User: Fold this.
Amino acid sequence: MILKDSPFKDIIESQIKNKSKLNTKNSPPENGFTISILNNSIKHTSCNGITHQRRKKQIIHLIRDVLKKHKIKNCHININADKIPKNNCFNFYREKDNTSQFLLPNFRFNYDEILIDESEKRFNTYAEQSAYLKKFDKPFEDKLSMIYFNCHSGTYKIKLFKKFMQINKKKNIIKAHMCIGDSHKKNNILSIDPSLNKIKYIVKKNMAGFEYKYFKEHCNYKYLLNESCFIKNDKIRLLLNLDCIIFSRISNYENFYTYTLKDNENHITFTNYKDLYSLFKKIENDQDLKNKIIQNNKEYCENILTYENILDYTALLLNNLF
Assistant:
């Protein structure tokens, strides 16, 4: 693929324009790592800190797949593995339009830890994962007319669930579940007392508990919530594969593909949760808009957010930055 044919042409070009801001030396950022490429193979890696070793393995997997398909120039790829983006290196998310922050595909495009069903199968690539997820999906008309969201517990999530309960006082439109523990590790649920003052009311409302919900539960609902939860905003890559309408709260951060998602074409965006109820009522009564969004996302997953295009994006970016 050449640059002008890439569906991510605009964001690649914007990074090329600012490539003088990128640190191209072997200099891993704090809590990050460097992947050095020599003669189209990974020569060595170096770390600054011992955290996020799993993310490092996932990105190495991605780079190896890129090298199988493309010839990449000799280079040192300095990668920040933290959630909070850093300047002058590669990140998985960046502050919107911050031209000093460069973007690699999220590490979850390779060997994602999300468990789709009881088999707890793991997938080497996003392509395998999305194909497997689609097996559990239902036709839109057969799903429940509610907004679904699940997550693991956290201070921000508790505040979020209180907003959900306020919305449900008008009409019960949100079905949400907070797993007390880590929602990506079924067998590693933390021993947190659900009677704690901060969470006991959510437990009482049957919106939190120790029960683990597999990702396939999303397939039962017409409407799905994409909540950025501070910075990371990568769950939508899976939601786009389903016959559903996605409500996305606008984030101050972006990844390499979120700019290609359009309001009222791929998802319904909002800023304040006070608006979610009225948006829900509006979309419920607009069958043409629902049909358009569902069809657009089918085409988006088939033609834009594909694993092959992700590999091409990475190759085009690296070869034009170094």
